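Q: A reviewer asked whether we had any structural model of the full assembly, not just the individual parts. We don't, so I'm hoping you can provide one. Inputs are below.
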Amino acid sequence: MATPLSLKELSKKEILLSSGHRMCSGCGAPIVVKMVLLAADYPVIACSSTGCLEVSTCISHYTAWKIPWIHSAFENAAATLSGVETMYKSLKKQGKLNDDIKFIAFCGDGGTYDIGFQSLSGAMERGHDMLYICYDNGAYMNTGIQRSSATPLGADTTTCPAGTVIPGKQQQRKDLTKIMADHGIPYVAQASISNWSDLMKKVRKALEIKGPKFMNILAPCNRGWRSRNDDAVMLSRLAVETCYWPLYEIENGDIKITFKPKEKKPLNEFLKTQGRFRHLFSPENEWLLKKSQEDIDRNWERLLREEACVLGGQPAETTEADQ
Amino acid sequence: MSNIYAVTGNEAVANALRQINPDVCAAYPITPQTDLMQRFASFVSDGLVDTEMILVESEHSAMSACVGASAAGGRAVTATSGPGLALMWEILFVASGMRLPILMPVVNRSLSAPLNIHGDHSDAMGARDSGWVQLWSENAQEAYDNTVQALLIAEHMDIRLPIMVCLDGFIISHSIERVEYLDDDIVKNFVGTYKPQNPLLDIQHPKSIGPLILPDLYTEYKRTQHEAMSKVKNIVLKTADDFAKISGRKYSLFETYRLDDAEIGIVILNSAAGTTKDVIDIYREKGIKVGLLKPRLFRPFPYEEIRETLQHLKALCVLDRCDSFGAFGPLYTEIASSLYLSENKPIMINKIYGLGGRDYMPEHAKIVIEELIEIANTGKVKLFKDYLGVRE
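A: Here is a predicted structure for the entire assembly that you could use as a starting point for your response.
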């Protein structure tokens, strides 16, 4: 019997990533992990790629993980977990194991969008029964805020610094969630810690589906985003409400937008509280702000059209905030 | 019923893997190994093994999947060659650092550039410091026998280290030879059941595997790997004794051939040892006291035993099927290290031969022996490191 997704019931569950880990105060990543593990009503074995979450949660001889957890290297979490899952399958087939276990990878955007992309793509294509979760903070935060293919247009990072000639990152983000959906896997979703119930429902749904699943979850990083360290949830909410980070799921190829803001907020509201975008508000960079807003609008409109198409040409109904 | 077959090296090793019946096998095609895993895949498709295959998208993922599978708590195998082993390099260290007894036949191949797919030891020599046990094989029979023995060494509770079984690409992997198989049930009993150590799949006892370790403990952690390696020699010998009982075939840390009373000697790995032995016979008939040492266990390296075996020689040539540009070949440096502590040691020369699958012919062994005779007589060396059979 699944635990009801109410705060009252969830508060009775054990948090499986203990406090005392060494993630920065106010980091979004451990919130992601805690929410995902709270949602799971199964025994879970987790795998992390090298990155902030990994180096901060298991420094020998301490571990914050109350569940079995493995880290192998940076670019191979999906391959490593596919090995764990296949051994599970083999031992179960041979009658050497009876437990019903779920397998979840928790990896940053560098280890997912970039160096781990081949490993992820391969594991998803092979159809392993696992949920791969990317906590996307939009840069290589662990090594000191270097640009990744998840870094948004215009962002100031240490490898694409906003200089006098080049104003930060010159390229759009890679739309990894869509790319994963195009693998034809049974479930792909985008979620945010600001919409916890939506996030947890997606995790629940994913864990009930057999086969490979991918979730991309925004994870604000106050060091890299140069924001206040108590703003992770607020920034996540602004990302959702500006449609910078739309909440949707793609189940067996059909897209469903799980949250539509009544009134789409201007992107600037998300950008202006972050130091990494400060230079965009200088007059000479106005074009970048304009382009960023146009990109967001175009992507959002496309999502709406895709959903309308799934619904048989009918415009999608507006849904209220899930809480 | 006869257990003697005419098979290729790849076929023999694939058959050993079938008899071992691993829980998980990760496979990625690369010449000349491809044929080995293809054969094993057909055993899986025909239900002859319990193995679950993971048909990965790269060798990096093959080794990563083996790390995950082995840490999960069962037997994991893969196989590779040349550039595939090079791509795995990072994860080879993860496998040994986590003390995972993964078994990997390595069908030795050269490294690019220029692209070359043939037999050469550059791959496994490049991985010599990765913390894997390495067994080398002269022919298909030895590749089969080493594969059957490998897991007993790797999985021994004093060891728990990954192991490579090396055989020469094409020369052995694709040549048909006489091979004597053991019965399936004999191999099954010999290999025994796997005893997992702290398996990840034991959800009642959660473990974190693969932590960050800072400078305060990293050295100690690495030293335990060295200590485990230092125990491998005895386990290899013990396993060889047990194997002799079921097979009648005797193995050791290395093989010697007509070496006891020899005055000059050759050290050579894998398939070229066979050709060399033939030429040694010719010279022995002429009264030339020449012998051979063929290493089997290259990691850990049996320095003391090799020193005792070679130190009586007057002149010695170490042949490397791998180059270290601007330095001596990797086998030469190990043999030189072995002999350093001897008071009376042979004059040593190094020949690089057979790169990228260049044939090693009887006349090459003759050139080496003639040069060694001259060095033994005159005490003079023209070139300490030279290339054998190279076109100028």
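A: Points you may want to mention in the reply: The radius of gyration of chain B is 21 Å. The longest helix of chain B spans residues 362-378.
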